[in-house]
Amino acid sequence: MKEITCKLLVIGAGPGGYVCAIRAGQLGVDTVIVEMAKPGGTCLNIGCIPSKAIIHAADDFAKTVAMAAGRNAMGIKADNPAIDLAKTMAWKDGITGRLTLGVAGLLKKAGVKIVVGRAKFRDGKTVAVETETGEQVIRAENIVIATGSAPVELPVLPFGASGAKVISSTGALSLTEAPQKLAVVGAGYIGLELGLAFAKLGSKVTIVEALDRILPLYDTQLTQPVGRRLAALGVEVLLGTKVKGLSSNGEALLAETGSGEEKRIAADKILVTVGRKPVTEGWGREELELDMDGRFLRIDEQCRTSMRGIYAVGDVTGEPMLAHRAMAQGEMVAEIVSGKRRSWDKRAIPAVCFTDPEIISVGMSPDEARAASREIKIGQFPFSANGRAMTLSAEEGFVRVVARADNHLVLGIQGVGAGISELSAAFALAIEMGARLEDIAGTIHAHPTQSEAFAESALKALGHALHI
Ligand code: FAD
Ligand code: NAD
């Protein structure tokens, strides 16, 4: 049996764990990271990056199909467009491969030792790893749990059921042919991002959602343009509908609408995207005394768990389960372990949904601001009045700013529009820097860009928008 000692041991090399280990290494902390799959975690291998690659390819393909059908106002023509999805997947795998190799390289460069295998706590300072060459015991002064999350499985639709008909996002991101008929269960982030992508790739998509609206995390004003796009692509959305399981011959998904109507949805694949659950088992939690916060590990504002020397970051610690939250936590914990004074002081965690069009929300929505008993001002500017959006054929959507009525401090910024995910940086910066409406309105925004809608929304809240 081999044994290593170190100052910091990180379990899991997803965005939370790998960023923590890289930063710790940079700071000269003697660090070991254990990963049982590939570096990069869910995000780089089966999550953010591969899904965005497929979404982009599907979008390009759909545009070409529209050109071939003569639905292109710019006069571009195309003939018989086709997509070789196996090749698309190979391209996507090339991207994830480069990124995961890159992460391994960055860890090495930072002097971090990588151990491959499943880690299991023996006690609060000791972890045993099953590696290919036998058991490796690691003793550490500090341990970070960054074990991430996994898809929630529905008991009536277990993954792999009916000859691999029932799939998770991981299965969907490795299909080499678009299913003719795709049923999607859950109209949240993944269901809509991938549902829209497969509709563009040619699948007949039906989405079944238990609640009475799509993307319940965002207000309806933000989700309406996405609803219109779903309709334009011929996607059927069954709201307020419960799934009951597979038909006896396994050919269809059975569901029941809110009014009690039975639905039989013929499907070649059934993609179940009803949320993700933290990975709190399989790493020896039973050997520890960790307080829980519902299904997540409880942490304080320094990501400390209830046990001294044990930290937790990322999806295992709570909502929002987003890669950039995990990374920010990982970076902070590395600095704390190195002796720096840090604690969680972020004003906002941006949320971006890569639907068509894309949705961004940073900080408080109008309803949240009102619920916090604030008198507010709202400024909203439509992309239909933005020159750049017109040149991009992307006039659907708007930017909305929510600010305090008394001192104009910006409380929240939301937007919906084609390709506006990149604006999330400006929105988050404004909130983090404590910007007021006048700061945004007084910043010169380059012309012609979609970002001008941001400045105009602030001007609108101040009562003197220029371009509307
Ligand atoms: P993970 O990335 O889940 O990494 C945890 C790692 O720990 C894994 O590599 C796992 O193998 C390892 N591990 C677990 N247990 C052990 C053990 N006992 N021993 C050794 N290793 C172990 N987020 C966004 O912000 N933007 C997006 O666009 C986005 N898109 C997504 C699309 C999809 C399809 C999915 C599924 C998720 C998406 N997410 C997105 C969410 C994002 O992937 C997660 O929030 C992020 O990966 C969480 O990082 P993490 O480090 O907490 O955990
Ligand atoms: P989600 O929580 O976003 O959406 C799940 C949806 O399924 C909800 O609308 C819910 O009402 C519905 N649902 C739950 N049970 C159901 C049932 N039995 N029948 C029908 N509908 C049901 O979950 P997700 O789409 O699986 O994504 C998981 C997480 O991954 C997200 O919450 C997010 O944290 C992360 N993610 C982020 C991004 C991004 O940042 N762009 C993209 C993908 C995933």
Ordered list of secondary-structure elements with their pairings:
Blueprint: E1 2-11, H1 15-26, E2 31-35, H2 41-46, H3 48-68, H4 85-109, E3 113-116, E4 118-123, E5 126-131, E6 134-145, E7 149-151, H5 161-164, E8 166-167, H6 169-172, E9 181-185, H7 189-200, E10 204-208, H8 220-232, E11 236-238, E12 242-246, E13 252-256, E14 262-266, E15 269-272, E16 276-278, E17 292-293, E18 296-297, E19 310-312, H9 323-337, E20 351-353, E21 358-363, H10 366-371, E22 376-382, H11 387-391, E23 398-404, E24 410-417, H12 424-432, H13 437-441, H14 452-462
Parallel strand pairs: 1-2, 1-6, 2-3, 6-19, 8-15, 9-10, 9-15, 10-11
Antiparallel strand pairs: 4-5, 5-6, 7-16, 12-13, 13-14, 17-18, 20-21, 21-24, 22-23, 23-24
Helix pairs in contact: 1-4, 1-9, 3-4, 3-7
This protein binds flavin-adenine dinucleotide and nicotinamide-adenine-dinucleotide (NAD).
CATH H level, superfamily name of the largest domain: FAD/NAD(P)-binding domain
CATH class group of the largest domain: Alpha Beta
Low-confidence stretches: none
Gap between N and C termini:
72 Å
Oligomer: single chain
What name does CATH use for the topology of the largest domain? FAD/NAD(P)-binding domain
Please provide the count of β strands: 24
Our estimate of the beta-strand percent is 25-35%
Number of helices: 14
Which structural category fits the helices and strands?
alpha/beta
Q: Main sheet, how many strands, which sense, barrel?
A: 7 strands, mixed
Helix content: 25-40%
Shape: globular
Query: What compounds are bound to the protein?
Result: flavin-adenine dinucleotide, nicotinamide-adenine-dinucleotide
- CA radius of gyration: 24 Å
